[in-house]
Write a structure and sequence with these properties.
alpha+beta; 3 helices
Length: 141
């Protein structure tokens, strides 16, 4: 079996493991392995093939990491409307208790409500800003 065939099989195995685990960086390593396979096709020595795999794999992983670290950060699950369907919904608060909490009926259950920082508790419609356990953090709409 030729060296290039072994490299291509290793690249295919790396892609298969990536599909099973969801590790995007493993695709970048597979690109490095593919670079070694191409070097083998061109007749390069084994050491040049290994260097090609190391350089291309390291460079693509580094670039991918740099690009991802510069992107926007994900919101915490409690405040992310993509994760928590309650964020952004509205509830009717009829009265606030002296301790700064209220009880509201929402989605067929009784929920404890806390006013978001910087707001003043007042009756009326409120938008859910965050969910912490079984408590809704709300702000006046």
């Amino acid at each position: 079996m030729s060296e290039s065939t072994i490299w291509w099989l290793l690249a295919g195995a790396a892609v298969a493991v990536e599909l099973a685990t969801g590790t995007f960086y493993l695709l970048m390593v597979a690109l490095g392995i593919a670079a070694a396979a191409i070097a083998a096709h061109l007749g390069a020595s084994t050491s040049v093939q290994l260097i090609a795999a190391a350089v291309v794999g390291s460079a693509t992983v580094s670039i991918c990491h740099f690009v991802r670290s510069r992107g926007p950060r994900d919101l915490p699950a409690g405040t992310n409307p993509d994760v928590n369907m309650d964020v952004g919904e509205t509830v009717q608060v009829d009265a606030w208790q002296p301790d700064g909490t209220a009880l509201v009926r929402y989605r067929g259950a009784q929920w404890a409500v806390i006013q978001a920082a910087g707001g003043t508790p007042s009756a009326g419609m409120h938008r859910i800003r965050e969910v912490i356990g079984s408590k809704l953090i709300v702000e006046k709409t």
